[in-house]
Amino acid sequence: MLDLFKNMRGAAPALAACLALAATGAQAEANWPTKPVTLIMGFPAGSGVDVVARAIQDPLSKSLGQPVIIDYKSGAAGNIASEYVARAKADGYTLSFGTAATHGSNAALYKKLPFDVEADFVPVAPVLDVSNVLTINPSVMPVKTLKEFVDLVKANPGKYNYASTGNGAGTHMAFAELNSRLGLDMVHVPYKGGPEALTAVVRGETCCIMNQVQTVLPQYKAGTVRLLAVTTAKPVAAVSEVPTIAASGLPGTKGFDSSIWFGVFAPKGTDPAIVDKLNAAISAAVQQPDVRARFESQGNSLRVETPAQFKQTVHDNRTKWAEVVKAANIELN
C-alpha cells in the first residue's frame, strides 16, 4: 500500500501538468481567434473565385475580430492549395477557400491526388452557388430556346464546338453533364481562361459555352450573345427572364442542377467549436445586405448551411460528379 501511495505521489505532477495543458488548450479554443486567419486561394488573383473571397474578406475580418488574409497558391486546378491546407496544422488559422471542383469533381478527374477531398478536410461553411448559363452566338446557332438548340445539335452530330475555361473546369463539367443527359454529340474546345473562352464564342470560333452569369452579362446586355437556360434548379435574379434547364421539360433535364458552390474548409481534426464559430461568422458575412446585393446582382445565390449540412453537400457533390465524369469518359493526368 505504501508503494502504491508513493507511486501516486510521483504521478501527481505529471497528471497536474496534463490537466493544465488540457485547460490551456480549451481556453485557447474558447478565445479563438487570437491572430490573423489565412484563406488559401487555389486560383489567381482577380479570378471569379478570388473575387468572391475578397467580397467576404472584410466583413469576415470584422466578425472574427482578426484580419483575414488571402494567400495565393494557384495551379493544378486548385490541387496545390488543397494539399497545402490538408497538411496544415488543424488550429483554425489556415483554411481553404474551395469550390465544387477542388472538393468534388477533382477527385474523379485526377486519379492520384495526394489527399482525400472528404477525409482530409472539415467542411466549414458554403458561401454561394454560382450559376452557369448556356450562352450561344446567335449567328452561329440561330436558335432561341433550349429545345431548338438540342434539335439542331442532334441533327448535326459532331458539328458544333463548345468552349470551356479549361479541362475539368466547372464550365466543362456543366456541358459534359448536359451532353450526357441529353445524348448530344459536341466537340469540347478548352481555353486557358474565361476571357479567352467567351471571346471565342463572340467571334464565332465556337458556338457556345456554359459560363458564369456574371461573366457573360456584359456581352448579353450588348446583344452579342444569347442566353438560353441557366444551370441552377431555380431561376437567377440577375437574368430572371432566362428559364432553367430543368424547366424545359426535355427528356433528361428533370432535376438538372449544375451550379458550382464556393465554400470554406479546415484541415481534418479542427476543433468543432472553432468550426462552429467560423460557420456563424461566414454565414453572417454573406448575409449582410451589401454583400448579398452584390452577389445576387452578379447572378449568384447565397448558400447558408450548418457544417453538418455542408458536409452532406460535399459528399453528394463528389458522388454526382464522379458519375458525370464516368459517363462522359473524362480523365485528367
Topology:
Elements: H1 2-31, E1 37-41, H2 48-64, E2 68-72, H3 79-86, E3 94-99, H4 101-109, E4 121-130, E5 132-136, H5 146-155, E6 161-164, H6 170-182, E7 187-190, H7 194-203, E8 208-212, H8 213-222, E9 226-230, E10 260-267, H9 272-286, H10 289-297, E11 300-302, H11 307-328
Parallel strand pairs: 1-2, 1-3, 6-7, 6-8
Antiparallel strand pairs: 3-10, 4-10, 4-11, 5-8, 5-9
Helix pairs in contact: 2-9, 4-11, 6-11
Give structural attributes:
333 residues, alpha/beta, 6-stranded mixed beta sheet, 5-stranded mixed beta sheet, 11 helices, 11 strands
Walk me through what this model shows:
It is built from eleven helices and eleven strands. α4 packs parallel to α11. About 2% of the residues have low confidence. The protein is globular. The strands form two sheets. A six-stranded mixed sheet has the order 2-1-3-10-4-11, sandwiched between helices. The chain has 333 residues and is of the alpha/beta class.
Instruction: Outline the low-pLDDT stretches.
Output: 20-25
Q: Please tally the helical runs, counting DSSP H or I stretches of 4 or more residues.
A: 11
Q: Major sheet: size, sense and barrel closure?
A: 6 strands, mixed
The total beta strand count reads 11
Order of helices and strands: HEHEHEHEEHEHEHEHEEHHEH
Rough outline: globular
Q: What share of residues is helical?
A: 40-55%
- Return Rg in Å: 23 Å
Strand order of the largest sheet: 2-1-3-10-4-11
Query: Beta-strand percentage?
Result: 15-25%
Give the averaged pLDDT, no decimals.
Answer: 90
Q: What is the end-to-end distance?
A: 67 Å
Q: Structural class, please?
A: alpha/beta
